[in-house]
């Protein structure tokens, strides 16, 4: 087995295990996500509380896996929608070219120039804080990178023989875009998706850490890291466990993206 396969399979294994734990982890012990036992607050990891407890006596093991589930939901949902929007937008700009292409890509540049926190703050002013608001804010930003990549791929692909052949048999522009060009750029789109998911998860964690993300009683990994950071001197395990899990998630998705790139992108040296 070569190095690229090892990287890909390692990344897929990490991601798969974390996905499974986010689903079944909260049910592996008797404690529930919301259950508080104040007399057991800030208890160190042990046989009863595997990851210890937080300041309200809640089981940290259960909360970490539920938090990972929330982070995955936000990361995967926002990434999928972002990639779909960016793919369609970039494909239209790249295929039609000319003034339309210039206007569409100028809009992308303008949106890129606005700091991400501005979008979040504006959305929080008009919407209630929560998972939906964070997903919308992340989508507004994350589709821009996909649009640039896909636009470049479409510009390259539209001069190829299979597109000229589709033109010659009378295929419409939209059929060429959706049935020929976008499938032809599928490799780059898949790579962008695997790259976008960890970026979104990390961005959500940062927002939650700053108090702009998922609000209590729900808690993503960023929220748990913020909680642990407040008591790092006295109870470092409250920071270590959620931080370790989000680090593993980042590692798994990035290894998967690197492995896929080596198989899909012909420009990557084997």
What does this structure look like?
The protein starts with a helix and ends in a 6-residue tail after the last helix. Helix 1 (3-24) packs across helix 2 and helix 8 (186-209) runs antiparallel to helix 10. 72% of the residues lie in helices and 0% in strands. By secondary structure, the protein is an all-alpha fold. The longest helix has 37 residues, at 60-96. The chain has one domain: MetI-like fold (Orthogonal Bundle). The model has no long low-confidence stretch (mean pLDDT 87). The chain contains 10 helices and no strands. It is elongated. The protein has helices at 3-24, 60-96, 98-113, 116-126, 131-157, 161-168, 173-184, 186-209, 221-230, 237-264.
Strands, helices and their partners?
Layout: H1 3-24, H2 60-96, H3 98-113, H4 116-126, H5 131-157, H6 161-168, H7 173-184, H8 186-209, H9 221-230, H10 237-264
Alpha-beta classification: mainly alpha
Kindly state the number of beta strands. 0
Compute the average pLDDT. Answer: 87
Q: Largest sheet at a glance?
A: none
Uncertain stretches = none
Tell me the strand percentage band: under 5%
CATH topology: MetI-like fold
Q: Would you identify the CATH architecture? A: Orthogonal Bundle
Over all CA atoms, what is the radius of gyration?
A: 22 Å
Enumerate how many helices there are, as a single number.
10
Domain module count: 1
Helix content bin:
over 70%
Highest CATH level, the class: Mainly Alpha
Please provide the ordered H/E string of secondary-structure elements.
HHHHHHHHHH
For the termini, the CA-CA separation is 13 Å
Shape: elongated
CATH-assigned homologous superfamily: MetI-like
């Amino acid at each position: 087995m070569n190095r690229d396969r090892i990287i890909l399979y390692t990344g897929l294994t990490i991601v798969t295990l974390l996905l499974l734990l986010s689903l079944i982890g909260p049910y592996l012990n008797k404690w529930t996500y919301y259950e508080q036992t104040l007399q057991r607050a800030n208890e160190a990891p042990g046989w009863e509380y595997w990851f210890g407890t937080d300041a309200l006596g809640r089981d940290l093991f259960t909360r970490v896996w539920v938090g990972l589930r929330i982070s995955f939901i936000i990361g995967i949902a926002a990434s999928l929608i972002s990639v779909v929007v960016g793919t369609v937008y970039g494909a239209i700009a790249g295929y039609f070219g000319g003034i339309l292409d210039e206007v569409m890509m100028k809009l992308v540049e303008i949106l890129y120039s606005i700091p991400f926190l501005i979008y979040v703050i504006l959305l929080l002013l008009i919407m209630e804080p929560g998972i939906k608001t964070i997903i919308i804010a992340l989508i507004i930003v994350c589709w821009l990178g996909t649009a640039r990549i896909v636009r470049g791929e479409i510009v390259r692909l539209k001069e190829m023989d299979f597109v000229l052949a589709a033109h010659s048999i009378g295929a419409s522009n939209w059929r060429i875009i959706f049935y020929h060009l976008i499938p032809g750029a599928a490799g780059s789109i898949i790579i962008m998706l695997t790259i976008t998911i960890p970026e979104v998860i990390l961005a959500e964690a940062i927002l939650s850490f700053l108090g702009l993300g998922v609000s209590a009683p729900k808690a993503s990994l960023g929220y748990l890291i913020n909680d642990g950071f407040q008591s790092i001197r006295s109870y470092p395990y409250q920071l270590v466990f959620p931080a370790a899990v989000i680090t593993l998630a980042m590692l798994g998705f990035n290894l998967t993206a690197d492995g896929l790139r080596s198989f899909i992108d012909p420009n990557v040296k084997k």
